[in-house]
Amino acid sequence: MPPQAERCFGIELLKSLDFDPERTVFATMELPWKLAEPRLRSPARHVEFVKSMERARLDEAASALPPVDSVIGVGGGSALDFAKY
Fold first, then answer.
1. What is each CA distance from 27 to 1, 7, 11, 72, in whole angstroms?
2. Whole-prediction pTM value?
3. Between the N and C ends of the chain, which has fewer C-beta atoms within 10 Å?
4. Given 3-state DSSP classes, what are the helix, strand and coil percentages for the chain, each rounded to the nearest 5?
5. Is residue 36 situated within a structural domain?
């Protein structure tokens, strides 16, 4: 059985988030990232700024990302949809 996604949320979540920067991708947009980045305990190494939800763009972006254990969506809408993809 494949591992189940863990859904977490809350105002203090970013401060408590423990992640491996080499094995985590953040999917976000410019404004949410500006607000979120300073609250992380460790600097992110892989950030994907979502610009389009077209299937070809999703496949291109996903194939360009390094192998990771976690994808974290920061923001709403397209960023969260990309993280789920």
1. 25, 15, 18, 6
2. 0.83
3. N
4. 40, 15, 45
5. yes
pLDDT for 7: 74
Q: Enter the tokens of residue 58.
A: 């999703």
| Domain-embedded: residue 70 | yes
Q: For 34-56, how does the pLDDT look when each residue is reduced to its tens digit (9 = 90+)?
A: 999 999 999 999 999 999 999 99
Instruction: Establish if 50 belongs to a structural domain.
Output: yes
Identify the domain containing residue 69 by its residue range.
Answer: 21-84
Identify the bridge partners of residue 29 per DSSP, sorted by sequence position: none
On whether the CB atoms of residues 68 and 83 are closer than 8 A, the answer is no
Ranges of the chain with pLDDT below 50: none
